[in-house]
Amino acid sequence: MLLVATAMFSQKPKVWLISDGGYQINDPDDISAVASYLLMSNMFNTRGVVIGSTTHPWNKNTIDQKKWAEETYASAYSKDLKNLNKYIGGYQTTIRFLESSIKGMGVSFSPTKNYILKNYPSILSLFKEVDQSKETINVLCYGPLTEQAIFVSYCLNNNRFDILKKTRFISHWTSSNFHVGSIKNPEHTHNCFADPIACEYMKNKAKNGNIEFYECGGIGQYGLVEGGPKGKEYYSLFKDSNLGKIFAEGKFTKNRVDDSDAATYWALLGNYGVSLKDIASNGVNFPEVEERNEKAFALHAKQMRDELLRRSNAAAGRNPDAIKIDIIVPEHGMADPHAWVQNDTLFFIAGHDESWEGKGSFRMDKWEVWSSVDLKTYTHHRDILPKQTYIGDLPNCWAGDICERNGKYYWFFSNRNINTGVMVANKITGPYTDLLGKPLLKEGIVPVHPYDPEIFIEDDVYTICFGSGTYYMATLAEDMKSLTTTPKPIIVQNENGEILKTDDKSTLFKRNDWYYLVYGSNYAMSKNLYGPYTYKGPFLKGGHTSFLSGTVSGMCYKKITT
């Protein structure tokens, strides 16, 4: 297992991140960008994160940026790590942070200087990392290129071409044809203004084929950031996790978070409209390429933001893959839905629970017929009242099931836990009338309460399953007015053959020659419809279930409703 885990880890892209941001250093967009990277970092093998890579002399006396990064990023990462690995997985135990050795040195890069790396510990660390690596190290460039230029210059001056062959630079906004820069002077951007000599050096070495250099341009700012969601309400959702809070508060301006440098790692991932294949490797930022990639990122911006939010929610302890509850009618008391898909439309009949309004428990005063064509908006068609049946004006509208036969629709319903009746309609939306004017399944037909019907259809045979504690099954007559077989008890047993009690409201479906009997949060399986069924365990918290399959609004659904 350890060998497998090591192999999987080694397959992730190796990353060395160099940021000019930090505490009270430069634009705080890097604070958000590093936090967003850490949320996504299970996709990478992170070898180091350098903070404060800027030569501006006024930064020289700022606090120790390594210590700040460890107290800020590493602390937040450590607090979120358990939940991130629990719900997503693959996150490193620790992330290595370094303070840039060029922080505030006040001198730009010099192409004629013979640099000695022991004087630049953060650059020496990168050199050692690449030297020891068998795979490519992807250097994400979040700011000026001074540190990177020193690294390249040292390798060239010392004939370490092998190191450069294992290094790939992915840079954000050291040129742009449209934003700050121009087609005539794409290098006129803030990151190049900070050290224009280093910028020019790196681009020349890339053009000459000495290094691989991918220039993203302004696509992070004008694709990801400007194309993404806006509003405090959305970004406040991130603040439940430690890393998400840093992301949301690092740079929140113009009604959105600015983490534009994140374009580098999204392009490295390559799954969101832009990959390294879409960017030149020789440092040239072609106008048509930047324009195309900006639009592609904008189209995927919401998806990228939502992926970050998914991970932030996981870090906060919420399972991102848990079944989400969509409230169809808030504060309405809807219960026991039973679904039917027809002609790209989902129909369901659900009970209305008066107890929502404080009138006691399980006072179900009616059934309601609903539909949806997109699973987002729902239409109420009609109410089915108990006084339209033999029940009379009593709040006894417990669970039922809907089916179609010979062009008519049949609603099998529970009269509380007393007995079961059946109604019929020419359309699934009704109106429904009582087919018998009396129970179909009356008290005493079996030793248990004959309620909570489930209809299972196979080879034009309609089987009704009902009861609680022990289920019973029988075949329905073609006119749906009677049973053609004597109800048979259904055995549910554990792996040792011990007979188990069931809950109320059975649900049945078949998949790959197996019959599934579902009740509450549990399920059992059998090769025979009438069992015996072997209990397999719980699968979902909840009460009554309805399994449906079909096409709604052009999309195929296989889903559980509870």
- Main-sheet strand order equals 3-2-1-4-5-6
Helix content: 25-40%
The computed structural class is alpha+beta
Approximately what portion of the residues adopt beta-strand conformation?
25-35%
The major sheet is characterized as: 6 strands, parallel
Regarding quaternary structure, what we see is: single chain
What shape does the CA trace take?
elongated
Total number of helices: 13
Low-confidence stretches: 1-10, 553-562
Instruction: Tell me how many strands there are.
Output: 27
Output the radius of gyration: 32 Å
Q: Report the mean per-residue pLDDT as an integer.
A: 92
Instruction: Tell me the span between the first and last alpha carbons.
Output: 39 Å
Please summarize what this structure is.
With 562 residues, the protein is α+β, with helices and mostly antiparallel strands. The chain has helices at 2-11, 29-39, 65-87, 121-132, 146-157, 161-165, 190-194, 196-207, 219-227, 232-235, 242-250, 263-269, 287-315, and strands at 14-19, 45-51, 97-99, 137-141, 167-171, 212-215, 252-253, 256-257, 334-342, 345-353, 364-372, 379-384, 397-405, 408-415, 419-425, 433-434, 454-458, 461-466, 471-475, 488-490, 492-493, 506-511, 514-519, 522-526, 533-538, 546-552, 555-561. A six-stranded parallel sheet has the order 3-2-1-4-5-6, with helices on both faces. The chain has a five-stranded mixed sheet with strand order 21-25-24-23-22, with no helix packed on it.
